[in-house]
Amino acid sequence: MSSQIPERTNIHGPAEIKPRDVHFDKLKDLNMHNWHGGNPIISQLYNGLSLLFPEGEDFFVHSVRIHAKQITDPALKTHVKGFMTQEAIHSREHIVYNEALDEQKIPTKRVLEMNHKGIEWTKKGSKQSQLASTAAAEHFTATLADMLLTDDRMMGDAPEEMKRIWRWHAVEETEHKAVAYDVYQACYPGVQGYLVRCLIMLLTLVTFVPGILLGTFALLRGVNEKPTGKHWRQALKFLFWGPGFITKMVWRSLPYFKPSFHPWDEQNFHHITEWNEA
Ligand SMILES: [Fe+2]
Ligand SMILES: [Fe+2]
């Protein structure tokens, strides 16, 4: 098995992946039921995503760690360390976020169970399919991150602490977006690697999008104010048109199927520079 680094690794990526050890202690003071512009549906969509992160990001780290011995390139090794530390801090802060949901009686149990089952099922696959799942999921998070950092409608008039946690997470997802992919390419080059990568992306597409919608519905059962017709119209617009949470995520997954794809084809390094300067 080759551990050669793909030719295009990190041409537009960071020289260094630097974790930012930040805390979001004010989340518990927010109204977690309808923090997104008073809309409970969009709020629960994000809350559902937050619930996926602690166990999901542990799995991402696990799938990269089981390939650690096959990585020989010193730069990629350093990037892997940065990626692991960033994901560990993301998990830690999303646990704080998720505790705020529990404290406000938002029913998180079902979403956590669905997520756990999905991850356990993925862990039954080969080492290769586990890493391919992480590379695919990281492509989705990178797409969402780019949307969060370029389109103000993604956060609307959310409280500052909410904007801060989601944008911080988005900046770091952008920064390490190529790491799992580069490890995958180094460990599984060639046609077989490409075919598995595409197949797993297809599987991720058809499970991830319905999964986050199911999660949103499960959480909506516990909100203190039931959604109105106006909320549903706003949510449909949010998902499919402007900003197009789902449509853009699906549309922007298409380049991933190109044999020559690399996450830094999308040159959005400026998000990181802007955040660091701010
Ligand atoms: Fe993360
Ligand atoms: Fe990530």
| DSSP strand tally | 0
The major beta sheet can be summarized as: none
Radius of gyration over alpha carbons?
Answer: 18 Å
Which spans of ≥5 residues are poorly predicted at pLDDT below 50? 1-8
Mean pLDDT: 93
Measure the end-to-end span: 43 Å
Cofactors, ions, other ligands? fe (ii) ion
Structural class: mainly alpha
Principal-axis shape: globular
- The total count of helices amounts to 10
Order of helices and strands: HHHHHHHHHH
Give the count of structural domains. 1
The percent range for helix content is: 55-70%
- Share of residues in strands: under 5%
Which secondary structure elements does this structure contain, and how are they paired or packed?
Elements: H1 40-65, H2 74-103, H3 109-123, H4 127-150, H5 160-175, H6 179-187, H7 190-220, H8 229-240, H9 245-251, H10 270-277
Helix pairs in contact: 1-2, 1-3, 1-4, 1-7, 2-6, 4-5, 4-6, 4-7
The protein binds fe (ii) ion (FE2) (2 copies).
One fe (ii) ion (FE2) binds next to α4.
